[in-house]
Structure formats: structure tokens, C-alpha cells
Amino acid sequence: MSIPKTIKQIMPIPDDYIILTKVVDEVGNTHMLNFSPMGYRYMYALVDCHGDRSDEVDVYVIRPDGSGYVDDSGITLVVPKYKCPHCGIFMKPQVDDGDMNYVCTSCNEMQRVKDVRTGGVANVYQSV
What tens digit of pLDDT does each residue of 7-38 get? Predict the structure, then answer.
């Protein structure tokens, strides 16, 4: 019998972050998508691990129907928003094999961030 998760505290995720969710399409390809425009909401949750290990911070997902759950499976990724250095609009984040790219849908500028799993390295700007 497993002990149910106990949430000690819930905190909002700042507006300058985007939450991406891992999905697998019908062909088996993995993509990271932003479900916020479809009514999903996200918060940080401090979860009590009942003395087995240190408490952990997970993402709490609230579905459009109001139900919610703690995502401790690692299928969500919290990434910062970036504005395009050329035209100033928010860029669209894309994740591919651990590499994070931000693409401007207006001027096609691309900002590359290496390996998001390790915190990345210096941003490199390049035109597409």
C-alpha cells in the first residue's frame, strides 16, 4: 500500500515562464507542447515525501474541467519566456532531444539553448 501524496504548499509559476508538456503523436514521435491556451493551468507544489526522502517540488496540473494532479513523472518542463532580440515579440519554445530552441514566428530568428536538462549554456543567436 502506498502513502498518498500530501501537498504542503502550492505557489504560482511566474508569468515569465511557459510550461511545456511531453506528448507522443500517433506515429510515436515525442513533442513538447504548451497546453495553457487550451485551458490547462499550472502551479508549483511542495510535496511531502513522508520521511522517505527530502520534500520535492513538482508541477501541479489543473485541467480545464477543474480536476488536478501532481506531475511527478517528468512530462512537464518549465521554461523561461524570451522576447525576440530583433522584433520584440515572444518567441515559441521548441525542445528536441534535450536541446531547447526558441523560434520567432514573426521574423524567423532562432535562439538556441543547449541541453535544458543540465541548465543550458550561453545562448547563441542565429538567423534561420
Answer: 899 999 998 898 988 888 888 877 788 899 99
Query: Sheet containing 41-48: which strands, arranged edge to edge?
Result: 6-12, 41-48, 56-62, 68-71
Q: Taking a C-beta distance cutoff of 8 angstroms, is the pair 81, 16 a contact?
A: yes
Question: Which residues neighbour 74 within 8 Å (Cβ) at sequence distance 6 or greater?
Answer: 22
Residue 69's contacts (CB-CB under 8 Å, 6 or more residues apart) are 60, 61
Beta bridge partners of 83: 90
Give the predicted TM-score (pTM) of the model: 0.72
- Using DSSP's 3-state secondary structure scheme, residue 47 falls into strand
What's the one-letter identity of residue 97? D
Place of cell 493551468: 41
